[in-house]
Amino acid sequence: MKLQDKVAIVTGGSRGIGRAIAQALSDHGAAVVITYLKSEVPAKEFVAALTEKGRKAMALEADVAQLAHAKRVTDQVREHFGRIDILVNNAGITADNYLTFMTEQEWRTVLDTDLGGVFYLIKTVGKEMMRKKSGRIINISSDAGLMGDMMRANYSAAKAGLLGLTKTAAREFAAHGITVNAVAPGLIETDMIAGM
Ligand code: NDP
After folding, report:
1. Measured from the CB, is residue 17 less than 6 Å from ligand 1?
2. For 76, which of 12, 34, 58, 165 is 20 to 30 Å away at the CA?
């Protein structure tokens, strides 16, 4: 129970990798706040399963691509739990297409969610962590951000951008006792790759 008394936010924690991360954090004693956009029922069922076991857990609806939602999540978690120790920026989407066919909409939505969303939450939660002079931020990038990927100009650009954002945030926050890291997984069988 290394994370007893710690409070963690996991974006997109209702399913896939985010859910597994939230489960692991909870298993180690942390109170977990998962955010969801469309998956309200799985999010609430997951939280109910955790609370039935006596764990502290909460689900919040939020679109990571909107700064106002990031602010609301930060405020709600601070008001409810009084602190935020861990932020896992996991929520992400794909909108695959060959580069020359990729629409502006496909480009923008993926960049806004996979990169902009992380910026918004680091900005709002980071301020909260700075006050406490401690925190752990983990960003889920992808091997696509390191190597590129067919039909994923938008996704690989966002995930590569996330590495630059991570390194800058790590430099800015180091003096405040906050670490910022990125993880770049390879293929993992979730809904995201179901159509591949
Ligand atoms: P899933 O498609 O299974 O889950 C995506 C999650 O992101 C869902 O919980 C979804 O919530 C949430 N989400 C999507 N858009 C938004 C939004 N605008 N606001 C809030 N939440 C949102 O994906 P994975 O679990 O596979 O992927 C998780 C992360 O891991 C992503 O960042 C992905 O890029 C990365 N990754 C995945 C790999 C893989 O092979 N699966 C490999 C490398 C990295 P909801 O259902 O409520 O909409």
Report:
1. yes
2. 165
* Strand 57-61 relative to strand 135-140, pairing: unpaired
- Which tokens in the block code for residue 135? 């925190």
> Does ligand 1 lie within 6 Å of residue 145's CB atom?
no
Rounded CA-CA distance 138/191 in Å is: 21
How far, rounded to the nearest angstrom, does the alpha carbon of residue 126 sit from its chain's CA centroid?
13
pLDDT in tens, 63-108: 999 999 999 999 999 999 999 999 999 999 999 999 999 999 999 9
Tell me the CA–centroid distance for residue 168 and ligand 1, in Å. 23
* Rounded CA separation 47/13 (Å): 10
**Residue 18 tokens, joined:** 């985010």
* 147 bridge partner residues: none
